[in-house]
Amino acid sequence: MEKTWADLGHVDSLKDPPLREVTLGTAVIAVSYSEGKFGAVSNFCNHAGGPLGSGKLDDDYIICPWHNWKFHRITGFGEPGFDEDRVPQFELKIENDHLYVNINPVTPRQKAPHPPHPLARPVKREDGPLRVVGISTTVMDAKNPRYSTSEKLLQVAVDHAKDLGAQTMFIRLNDLKFRACEGYYSKSAFACTWPCSITQMDETDQLAQVYEALIHWADVVIVSTPIRWGAASSLYHKMIERMNCVQNQITINNKALIQNKVASFIITGGQDNVQDVAGHLLGFFAELGFVFPPFPFIAHTMGWDAEDMERNISYVEKSDGLKSGARDLVKRSMDTAKIILQHIPEEKIVRPGRKAQHLTVDKEE
């Protein structure tokens, strides 16, 4: 291919900062300088298109600012062990103390075959009975577990779903080892991927079980939480921060991963703030695409002045009314799911989510 040279400027002006992003027509190039030598490679990372020129240098490797993939700043090869991956390299020359780049790459982009993550498969409901998953967000010392009123009522609901013929699953977030959200969306909307970037990079991250249940398995999701200082539990918030990757697919790809699924909630605590907590739960799960049965939550508190939690536990243990409420909640949820599954619309949901418009971001070819 014919060489097309572009003047990047005087060499002294290109040494600091040592890594930068340069746009020349349709070519976007990461230009670097280290130990007396310039380098130029494609600005777009092989992984998710992150801007290499906005990253940082680690010796002769550029670290992508999105997910920390590394590429040699001169050759474009991935770091040792990952050198089957390569970003295009651009030829450089110096004339009259000016740095020139051939805007036509001299090597091709090369992506090593990476099998898709199991969560990335198409979302399709398999035939079979209704499927109900309960998710407990109570935090406790696993070695010395205590009584959890919200979890006990959730167990009543899930057991009743099984009695009604549903397949059931019970997930205790407290039993799972998973990392907190690391704010990839704060770097770029496209840095927050589906499946979650953390789940893809860390095979030990067990939030994959929650993603699998919510996206691919369940028809009905029941989430239980205690009230902690007027809000849902910290473990609940740790989980939903990681659910941003689900909502973000709506924003960047017009892709609703959650459709035709029902959510409901169980809220208990030693103080009263039920409606505020319920409002947050309903708002967030609506953002993901869930729908709700009539009267989508049950709740119990002892009130603002009550600190006699021993009596609270005893009350829940003995309360036929609360247990009946939990059974009625799951039945309402299952009845709603049956109606939805019998009347699934054929047309695609267009522009879902609160933004209701496409996010436009320039990306490479």
Question: Explain this structure to me?
Answer:
- The protein contains nine helices and 14 strands.
- It has 365 residues and is an alpha/beta fold.
- The longest helix is centred in the C-terminal third of the chain and has 23 residues, at 320-342.
- It is elongated, with a radius of gyration of 26 Å.
- The protein starts with a strand and ends in a 23-residue tail after the last helix.
- The model has no long low-confidence stretch (mean pLDDT 92).
> Using DSSP, what is the number of strands?
14
> What percentage of the residues does DSSP assign to strands (E)?
15-25%
- Termini separation: 18 Å
Strand order of the largest sheet: 11-10-12-13-14
**Chain oligomer state:** single chain
Which percent range fits the helix content?
A: 25-40%
Order of helices and strands: EEEEEEEEEEHEHHHEHHEHEHH
Ranges where pLDDT stays below 50 over 5 or more residues in a row are: none
Cα Rg: 26 Å
Class by helix and strand content? alpha/beta
Shape: elongated
Number of helical stretches of at least 4 residues = 9
List the helices and strands and how they pair.
Layout: E1 5-10, E2 19-24, E3 27-34, E4 37-42, E5 56-58, E6 61-63, E7 70-72, E8 92-95, E9 98-102, E10 131-136, H1 149-163, E11 167-172, H2 184-187, H3 197-201, H4 208-217, E12 220-226, H5 234-242, H6 244-253, E13 262-269, H7 274-288, E14 297-301, H8 309-318, H9 320-342
Parallel strand pairs: 10-11, 10-12, 12-13, 13-14
Antiparallel strand pairs: 1-9, 2-3, 3-4, 5-6, 6-7, 8-9
Helix pairs in contact: 1-9
